[in-house]
Amino acid sequence: MSRSSQTQVAVLGALSVEPMTAYALREAIRDVLGHFWSESFGQIYPTLQALEEAGHVQRRGGTRARSSVFVITDSGTARLIELLNEPVQENPPRNGLLLRLFFGRVLGRERCRELLRGARDAAEAQRAEYEQLLARLTAEEGDTPDFPYIRMTILAGIHHSRAAAAWAGECLETLQDP
């Protein structure tokens, strides 16, 4: 799936939840999907325009993207389903921490330990954030049809952050003074 197709998934998916302005759409992608998906704001507006031209979304009220409310159409829902059924495209990993650790002999043991402690602390903080988010959304939206799917994405974040913290802890043990 191309980058533009993935942007279409983010835009159409967000609009399938509720109609919104382009600005609200941008905020929703950042604040809601941002836990597991980042989207360039520079891609959202052109994608929205292309989806409108293709008849997949309709503009209601206003003449500017920021003031208009966009609504997904039946063809937009069909396009979203088509895109969601395409194979998942994995992006090549780019992990600055792992790059530094790979060359850790040059960087030095103590600096690598600092990086690992930072990674562990960040993972633990992220896990706590995901757990709070899950508790809040369970109370607020636990009975909505979308909640089981939202819950799955939050659980992925919880498990990933737990694993990242455990990995960093194990690596810190590896780097203990001989």
Describe this structure in words.
The longest helix has 33 residues, at 109-141. It is elongated and about 70 Å long. The protein is 68% helix and 6% strand. Strand 2 and strand 3 (69-72) form a beta hairpin. By secondary structure, the chain is mainly alpha-helical. The protein has eight helices and three strands; from the N terminus they run αβααββααααα. The protein has a three-stranded antiparallel β-sheet. The protein folds into two domains: 3-84, Winged helix-like DNA-binding domain superfamily/Winged helix DNA-binding domain (Arc Repressor Mutant, subunit A), CATH 1.10.10; 96-174.
Brief descriptors of the model:
elongated; 8 helices; single chain; 2 domains; 178 residues; WH-like_DNA-bd_sf; mainly alpha; 3 strands; Arc Repressor Mutant, subunit A
Secondary-structure map:
Blueprint: H1 3-17, E1 20-21, H2 22-31, H3 41-53, E2 57-60, E3 69-72, H4 74-84, H5 96-102, H6 104-107, H7 109-141, H8 147-174
Antiparallel strand pairs: 1-3, 2-3
Helix pairs in contact: 1-3, 1-4, 7-8
Concise description?
This is PadR family transcriptional regulator. The chain is mainly α and 178 residues long. The chain is 68% helix and 6% strand.
**What's the domain count?**
2
The biggest sheet, with number of strands, parallel, antiparallel or mixed sense and barrel status, is:
3 strands, antiparallel
Structural class call reads mainly alpha
Whole-number radius of gyration?
Answer: 20 Å
Going across the major beta sheet, what is the strand order? 1-3-2
CATH-derived topology of the largest domain = Arc Repressor Mutant, subunit A
CATH class of the largest domain: Mainly Alpha
CATH homologous superfamily classification of the largest domain: Winged helix-like DNA-binding domain superfamily/Winged helix DNA-binding domain
- Give me the CATH architecture of the largest domain, please: Orthogonal Bundle
Distance between the termini: 48 Å
Provide mean pLDDT, rounded. 90
Helix and strand pattern: HEHHEEHHHHH
